[in-house]
Structure formats: structure tokens, C-alpha cells
Input
Amino acid sequence: MGNAVYHLVAIAVGAVVGVLGVALHVGVERFSAAWPAFLDTTLGLDGLPLYAAAALVAVTMTLVSLWLVRNFAPEASGSGVPEIEGAMEGLRQVRWHRVLPVKFVGGFLSLSSGMVLGREGPTIHIGASVAKAASDLMKWQSEDMRAMLAAGGAAGLAAAFNAPLAAVLFVIEETRRQFPYSARSYIAVVLASIASAIVTETLTGNRPYMLLEASAIPYGWLPAFLVLGVILGAVGVGFNHTLVWSLDHVRRLGERRSYYIFPTAVGLVVGVLVFVRPEATQGGELLAVQLTREGLPLAMLAFIVLLRFVMTMASYSTGVAGGIFAPILALATTIGLCYGTAIESVTALPEHGHAAFAIAAMSGLFASTIGAPMVGMVLVLELTGAYSVLVPVMITAIFSNMTSQALGGRPIYEILLERTLAIEAAARAAAAPR
Output
């Protein structure tokens, strides 16, 4: 088989993933706005009846999403990125015929409910599933199949955020241990990302999803971004530890009683928060832009940080389909705004200083939690269009990653994959005859 055929398939995979990614994105965006408007405006509900109805809608979507995952595709739980990395390493299988529908429908429901989850997890997993389907059709095995999985995953990330360059870097940096690097496989990843981005831009427009206005920062302010990076490195280590701790505790609760108890509680709370505290719900891409422009006081920003941190842990621990990229970026934005506001209480910030700290914080927290500083830098710039703050973004990301490593932090997807493999090994050992 020639390279031309392989690369044509990669382009086709990227285009299909682009269509599915846009369908998921637009569907979630519209439905997550439509059902609250229906309860509030169309039905005219208010007060306790409104909160009760919203809680019922959100918990229904949450439980249906979880039911689909648990009964038809357990591997579709959560982000899906660890599953892809495991498959590229030969440790997991991508059963595309069941993951594809469950990840799409389950992701649509969980994201639309208001859960603090990102759409990038489902689209990356959907992308890898499309790639596996193409590989099965072409009867590819081993290296060709693994490289196509990477191309599909990259196409999914490109579709989620319209960030094709970050998608390519994600494969190179995040899956560096698993990716079968060669000119053939690398070109396939680039072509799939480009095809996905072209489809995404054609259907949704060529505009950064988190467009933020920022101007160049005087170099005298660069030490402040270094300190921000150190802070975010510590926060990232705490984020990863708390996420795994939450997953373990919720799993033990499910084993003792029912796997639906905790998701029910979270779904009910999310439904109420959609109206009471909307900033504590959904992935948070639009929230990040909104908060940067509002100029909220430090106490309110700190409250939003705490609220979103708790809701991110709770939402991801339910086991429904959904990613953590977007929640990490929104949480980081709020932390960056807190940092900038605290500095402003002492001295005046440069022009667009708040936006610069918010943008740099996104790359910093991404670098410490995901463990991919280059991806964090490029992803944030593609998302915001704020190329004028490139140097502060780079400084924040690299010092955050250095701090995370110094504190013993590890990439969250690596941790989650090891956790999944350990749970399955323990289950097999328990089921084996003595």
C-alpha cells in the first residue's frame, strides 16, 4: 500500500471527524441554551418550581448518559484520551462500533446537562473511533493502525477547538511514548488535522473560540508571569491528586451501594446551578471570555475558582462521557484573573493586563496537569488569538511544568490510564478461580 492511499484515508478521517465534531459542538451549544430558556421563558417557571424542573432535566440527562456508558461502552467514560493512548500502546482496544454512538450521544447529554466537562474528550475519542473504523476497513494492523488512531484523535481536538496546530503538537508531545513516528505517520496526523479544521471553519466560521483582546506586555512584568507559573504548577499537582482521589472515592461508593447515587446528586445540583450560579456549570469557554471582560472583585473571582474546582471534580467523577480540557482552561482563566486583581490592589497593571494573566494562566495550568507545555502554549494562542502575549504565555507554561515535575507531578492522562489498567487487573484477579 502506497503512502498516497494512506494519506487520502487520513484526510477522509479528518473530514468525517470535523463533521461529527461540529455536530456535537453546535448541538450541545444550542440544546444547553434551549432547555433552560424553555423552562424559564416558554413555561414561565420561577423560583422553586423552576429549580425543581431544571434539576429534573439535568439529572435525567446525566443518568441516561451514565446508563449508556455503563451498559454499552464502559471505556467511553470520561475523557477517552487515556483509552487512545492505551490502544496506541497495545494495552487497550478501540471498539469503535460501540464507542462511537455512545460517546456522541452520551457526550451530548452530559455536556448539555450543564456538567463541568469539556467537549474535546468526546471529539478526540470519536476521532480515534472513526480512525479505527477506517483501519478495520482497510485491514490495517500494528503501526499503520496506531498512527491512524493518532490522526483521528488529532482531528477530534482540531474540531473541538478549531486548533489544528495544537492538535498536531498534542500527538507529538502527549503521545510521544506511543506514537509510531515516521514521515508517513506524521504527515497523516497533519493532514487529518487540516481536513478537520477546514470542515470546522467552513461550518462554523474562522474565528478563535475564545477570542480575547490583549497587547504586548512590557518585559519588566515578565517575573510576575514566572511567579504565576510556579503557582499554577502547584495547583496542577493538587488538581490531579484531587481528581484521582475523587474518582476513587466515588467508585468505592458505587461498589458499596449504587453507581447512580453520586451522579444523581451531582445532576440535581447542576440543574439548580444552571439558574442560580451559571458560572459554575458547563465547560466554560464562553465563561472565560466573559469573566475577563467583567472586572469582578477578587472575592467573587476566588469564589468562582472554588466553585468550578469542586464542580469539575464532581462532574468528572460521575463517569459520564466528557473531557477536562475546557474545565481546566476556564479554571485557569479565573485563577489568572484572581492573580491579576490581587496585583492590581498594589500597583497598576499594564494595558490589558488582566487578559494577559488570564491567557497565560490557561497555558500554565494545562502544562502542569496535562504535562504538555508546548501544546498548552499553542492551544491557548489558537483559542484566543492573543499572539502578542506569546512570551508571557511561554514563561508561565514552562515554569508551571518545571514546578509540577519538581513536586513529583505526572501527566493526568498517564495516571488515569494506569488507574484503569490496575482496576481491570484487580477485577480479573478477583474473578479468577482460586
The chain has a mean pLDDT of 92.
